[in-house]
Amino acid sequence: CLPGEAHDLGLILLGVLLVGRGWRVTFLGADTPIDTVEASIRELQPTLVVLATYDATRFHEHVEAIAALTAVTPVAVVAPVDEQTVSETGARILPRDIAEAAASLTMP
Questions:
Q1: Which residues contact 6 (CB under 8 A, 6 or more apart)?
Q2: What global pTM score does this model have?
Q3: Could you give the C-alpha distances from 106 to 16, 20, 22, 31, 90, in angstroms and in order?
Q4: Beta carbons of 74 and 47 less than 8 angstroms apart
Q5: pLDDT tens track for 29-70
Q6: Going by C-beta distance under 8 Å and a sequence separation of 6 or more, which residues neighbour residue 98?
Q7: Which three-class secondary structure state does DSSP give residue 20?
Q8: How much is the mean pLDDT over the chain?
Q9: Alpha-carbon span 89 to 71, nearest angstrom
Q10: Angle at 59 between CA 55 and CA 62, to 5 degrees
Q11: Distance between CA atoms of 77 and 19, rounded to whole angstroms?
C-alpha cells in the first residue's frame, strides 16, 4: 500500500487470488515507504508491482514516485482516480473490484 495507507485487506485478497492464478506474490504491507518498494524492486525484479490506496489524495501525493517506479518495472494501481491520471504516471489502473482486478492480470 502507498505510504499513509492503512487499509491493506483488499490488497491481501488480491494477492491470494493472484497466487491461485499462478503468480508469486510478495506482500509488503500497509503504509509502505516508496524507498522500501524501490529496494524490493531491485532485489526481487518483479514482473509487476501493484500499489493500492483508498484515498485519492495519497495517490496524488506520490505521483512522481509512482512515475519513477514505472521507469524500472511495470506498475498497476488500485486507487479512486481516473484511468488517465494513472496512465500519466506510466502505470495502469486496475479495477477496484478485487475479483475483476485479479482477472485483468494475466501471467506474462
A1: 30, 31
A2: 0.94
A3: 15, 12, 9, 26, 19
A4: yes
A5: 999 999 999 999 999 999 999 999 999 999 999 999 999 999
A6: 10, 13, 14, 17
A7: helix
A8: 96
A9: 9
A10: 140
A11: 18
Residue 46: other Cβ atoms inside 10 A: 17
Question: Does residue 49 contact residue 73 with C-beta atoms inside 8 Å?
Answer: yes
What distances in angstroms separate CA 66 from CA 1, 17, 19, 36, 99, one per listed residue?
12, 24, 24, 13, 24
Order across the sheet with 75-78: list the strands: 49-52, 75-78, 92-93
All three cell numbers of 104, joined, read: 485483468
* Residue 93 CA: distances (Å) to CA of 12, 36, 42: 17, 21, 23
